[in-house]
Design goal:
- The complex is a heterodimer.
- By secondary structure, chain A is α/β, with parallel strands linked by helices.
- Chain A folds into 2 domains: about 140 residues, Alpha-Beta Complex (Aspartate Aminotransferase, domain 1), CATH 3.90.1150; about 240 residues, Type I PLP-dependent aspartate aminotransferase-like (Major domain) (Aspartate Aminotransferase, domain 2, 3-Layer(aba) Sandwich), CATH 3.40.640.
- Chain A contains 13 helices and 12 strands.
- In chain A, strands 2-8-7-6-5-3-4 form a 7-stranded mixed sheet, sandwiched between helices.
- In chain A, helix 8 links the parallel strand 5 and strand 6.
- By secondary structure, chain B is an alpha+beta fold.
- In chain B, the strands form 2 sheets. Chain B has a 4-stranded antiparallel sheet. Chain B has a two-stranded antiparallel sheet with strand order 5-6.
- Chain B is extended and about 65 Å long.
- Classes of the chains: A alpha/beta, B alpha+beta.
Chain lengths: ~375, ~160
């Protein structure tokens, strides 16, 4: 039967590395540096709270926007951490992870043909989400020499073609790159000048190692420009709970809520209750995890450079994005051969955009012993 | 706690080179700091944490927590009597506590009999010891922050975006 699948869906290029993922998942005893989630489990008090809520029978829907207590807590936390103020009733929405927030933001903002700037390398869902919403992704390509950072000049130049929005993720998956307050202020100028809406995914904000994270929305005059996305997955090691949030101008959050209520209804209640506990009492655990990630980052960057792979020092998240150009291999060949010969899994750069050929993503959300062993194996592979 | 101490507490075998890489410090400076800690007694010794249940001879190994009530001595308080008690090699730990009794000591022996003999012959009969309560340890779940049970493997996939 001819199902005549939606053209919009068919136009989305299939992920070229699905087969590689299947290869990794089918293999045993692999040291994995390919994982996009923490190797910690959620703090025990958070899990304990979730268990308690189930025992007490909290198994219902919640308000579409999410539990008011959780929204209030998020507002309070943003105010105390960043002096960033939102109204919990009109400007906050609880989503099923930041992934849903990205999709909602694109669908709420874009009309057919609207152009959106998407930096590259970037998380895999950005361009597809724009295209599924009828928009057109305009790529801003960056490389290792600039630390994978977009610049005001790059944004300004791209805006000449008539652009509605900019998507940004900092600290970034897959590069770990983040921006200082000064760098963001410079970007803010061109954002205001070109009247851009920014969809700012700051889910790794707590994992910033060398300076304080600054939310784009907290800069003067930027709140009206920014749809601020964040969540509990990375900072609190709660990926499976699937809880994220959106803060932004009431009009945009209202439009997003409209889509959310018809497609998702509400984020799961167990996750929302666990998230409240996480916000209340996890400061110590978050700091411990951050400290551990920072050490591993220091180690992996030094070790990769030592064995001859050019790797920049990223400011946050738990990824590094070294160049493998010195091997003369494509990132896919490198990843496949390394997997087959040395049983180390990582993600080929091409997964994150065509301009990312020649790089691989290494996740250091893995124990120090694993990282040490993986480095030895990569070194063996390079020596072959 | 200093980062170097923190790392060594978790893994005493970590080398100065490794610590330098993890912390971004210079190898020489890490070595110097460790040396200073060893000299001034901050680092007392390096040892392995062993799960006795995994050691075969451990069938002949028991441990007891003993509450000891003592009459403090003039001028030296509890310290002198504590020293008399903790100097026995059978005593592996000794703490002064607030509350219903005074000293909590940990005693190890080959079997219940050896520990009982220690309590009856050496501890209870000591001057200033007014009474003891012995609790034999049945099972260790967690020690020094370490859960002594093989963890189930998590559900995390080996690769994801």
């Amino acid at each position: 039967m001819d199902y005549n699948i939606s053209k919009r869906v068919i136009q989305i290029a299939p992920s070229g590395i699905r087969a590689f993922f299947d290869l990794v998942l089918g293999m045993k005893d692999v040291i994995s540096l390919g994982v996009g989630e923490p190797d910690f489990v959620a703090p025990w008090h958070v899990r304990e709270k979730a268990i308690d809520s189930l025992e007490q029978g909290f198994t219902s829907y919640t308000s579409n926007k999410g539990m008011p207590e959780l929204r209030k807590q998020i507002v309070h936390s943003l105010k105390s951490r960043y002096n960033l103020k939102y109204d919990f009733e009109e400007e906050v929405l609880i989503t099923v992870g930041v992934s849903e927030g990205l999709d909602l933001a694109a669908r709420a903002i874009l009309n057919p043909g609207d152009k959106v700037l998407v930096p590259e390398p970037i998380y895999v869902s950005y361009a597809p989400v724009v295209e599924l919403a009828g928009g057109k992704a305009v790529l801003l390509k960056t490389d290792i020499d600039s630390g994978f950072k977009i610049t005001p000049a790059l944004v300004d130049k791209a805006c000449k073609a008539g652009v509605k929005a900019l998507m940004i993720n900092y600290p970034c998956n897959p590069t770990g790159t983040s921006y200082t307050k000064e760098e963001l202020m410079a970007l803010a100028k061109v954002i205001k000048k070109n009247k851009l809406i920014v969809i700012s995914d700051e889910v790794y904000d707590e994992l910033t190692y060398d300076f304080q994270h600054t939310p784009l929305a907290s800069l003067q005059g930027m709140k009206d420009h920014v749809v601020y996305l964040n969540g509990f997955s990375k900072s609190y090691a709660m990926t499976g709970f699937r809880i994220g949030w959106v803060c932004g101008p009431a009009e945009i959050v209202g439009a997003m809520t409209k889509i959310h209520q018809y497609t998702i209804l509400c984020a799961p209640i167990t996750g929302q209750i666990a998230a409240q506990e996480a916000l209340k009492n996890s400061h110590h655990e978050v700091q411990q995890m951050k400290k551990e990630y920072k050490r591993r980052r220091n180690y992996i960057v030094a070790a990769l450079n030592d064995i001859g792979l050019n790797c920049h020092m990223p400011e946050g998240a738990f990824y590094v994005f070294p160049s493998i150009k010195s091997t003369g291999e494509t990132s896919m060949d490198f990843a496949q051969n390394l997997l087959k010969q040395q049983k180390v899994a990582l993600v080929p750069g091409v997964a994150f955009g065509s301009s990312c050929e020649g790089y691989v993503r290494i996740s250091y959300a893995s124990s120090y012993d694993n990282l040490k062993e993986a480095i030895l194996r990569i070194q063996n592979y390079l020596k072959r | 706690m200093d980062e170097i101490l923190e790392l060594l507490t978790n893994d005493a075998r970590m080398t100065a080179e490794e610590i330098a890489k993890l912390t971004g410090k210079k190898v020489e400076s890490v070595k110097k700091t460790i040396k200073a800690y060893e000299t001034n007694g901050t680092i007392v010794k390096y040892k392995a944490l062993i799960d006795p249940e995994m050691v075969h001879e451990s069938n002949r190994f028991v441990r007891a927590l003993i509450e000891v009530s003592v009459a403090p001595q003039k001028n030296v308080g509890f310290d002198a009597i504590a020293e008399r008690i903790y100097s026995f090699p059978e005593v592996t730990s000794c703490y002064l506590l607030s509350g219903a009794y005074d000293l909590l000591i940990v005693v190890e022996g080959e079997n219940i009999q050896t520990v009982s003999n220690f309590v009856a012959a050496k501890l209870s009969s000591m001057d200033h010891v007014r009474g003891t309560t012995t609790h034999f340890l049945l099972k260790k779940y967690k020690e020094d922050g370490q859960v002594l049970k093989k963890k189930k493997k998590g559900t995390r996939l080996n690769i994801s975006y």
